[in-house]
Write a structure and sequence with these properties.
Blueprint (H helix, E strand, L loop, with lengths): L5 H12 L11 H16 L14 H11 L7 H31 L10
Length: 117
């Protein structure tokens, strides 16, 4: 059995993310299972754990511990949409910067014979 239990995880996640009077972020065990499974898959795919692990610790146990310790957050739908929009804006800005750098590198050639750009 994995410790902490679903109930404990739901309590910790909702206590740390929700203010009084707000809707809880996690309403079901399914949300906890989905979040920890997604994080475990990230660890399997090579992402570094956010906590100190021992040899032999399984990715799911690591993900559960990260969530329980507050190293990992489950975002509300609104927070997830906002984070995705920020990531898209950052990606677009990076692509534009790369395109500008490529365009600018052709304009900055120096002609040694005339000493002009």
């Amino acid at each position: 059995m994995i410790h902490p239990s679903y109930v404990e995880l739901m309590r910790v996640v909702n206590d740390s993310a929700v203010e009084i009077g707000e809707e809880p972020v996690v309403n079901s065990r399914y949300s906890i299972v989905t979040a920890t499974a997604k994080r475990a898959r990230q660890i399997i795919d090579g992402n570094d754990p956010l906590i100190e692990t021992k040899h032999g610790d399984k990715p799911l146990s690591t993900a559960v511990t990260e969530l329980y310790n507050g190293n990992l957050r489950i975002l509300s739908d609104e927070e997830a949409a906002e984070a995705e929009a920020l990531q898209e804006a950052a990606k677009k800005a990076l692509e534009e910067a790369r395109a500008n750098a490529e365009d600018g590198s052709d304009d900055d050639t120096f002609d040694m014979d005339t000493e002009e750009y």
